[in-house]
Specification:
- This protein has about 190 residues and is mostly helical.
- It has a domain of about 70 residues.
- Helix 1 packs antiparallel against helix 2 and helix 1 runs parallel beside helix 3.
- The chain is elongated, with a radius of gyration of 39 Å.
């Protein structure tokens, strides 16, 4: 892993930098071919590691392959690119481009779809939380008596004027104090 990191990635990256800096087209093309082959190798390696890791000298063979790709004597990456990759990509370029466009469109549509669903879920959760919070608040307020409310205001010595109304439900429209008074007069009048 360490040798592949140094020889397969860092060394070529540094020489790619030098090729870009020097603006040498020949070196630039050489390193671009290497990176294309290395990307294909890394992709294939993801699957071959699962099935071939038991093979004797498997990891050593991978290191030797990367060295072969890099070697200026064997020009492995240029050879593989010119013999196999370029002809294959050239013949399949139209299909690959169409497939990529379709995948991009589908991913955009999926992103929009899941984004809308996510917003709907978030909005529903916010509304439910607000309604539960409002219900808890109204229940909490119902549990206070008028004396408690006046104490909270810091007005504990004063009495609550009869014009203050606290509604505990939509059916009850009379203030608590006046209802108690009317019940008292209604029962004494009988």
């Amino acid at each position: 892993l360490f040798s592949r990191l140094i020889f397969g990635t860092l060394y070529p990256a540094y020489y790619s930098y030098k090729a870009v800096k020097s603006k040498d087209i020949k070196e630039y093309v050489k390193w671009m071919m290497y990176w294309i082959i290395f990307a294909l190798f890394t992709t294939a390696e993801t699957f071959t590691d699962i099935f071939l890791c038991w093979f004797p000298f498997y990891y050593e063979l991978k290191i030797a392959f990367v060295a072969w790709l890099l070697s200026p004597y064997t020009k492995g990456s240029s050879l593989l690119y010119r013999k196999f990759v370029h002809p294959t990509l050239s013949s399949k370029e139209k299909e690959i481009d169409d497939c990529l466009v379709q995948a991009k469109d589908r991913s955009y549509d999926a992103l929009v779809h899941f984004g809308k669903r996510g917003l709907n879920v978030a909005a529903t959760a916010a509304v439910m939380a607000a309604s539960k919070g409002q219900g808890a608040l109204s229940e909490r307020l119902r549990s206070f008596s008028m004396q408690d409310l006046s104490t909270i205001r810091g007005d504990s010595s004063s009495t609550v004027p009869p014009s203050v109304t606290v509604r505990t439900s939509s059916k009850q429209s009379q203030p608590k104090t006046s209802r108690s008074a009317s019940e008292g007069t209604g029962s004494s009048g009988k």
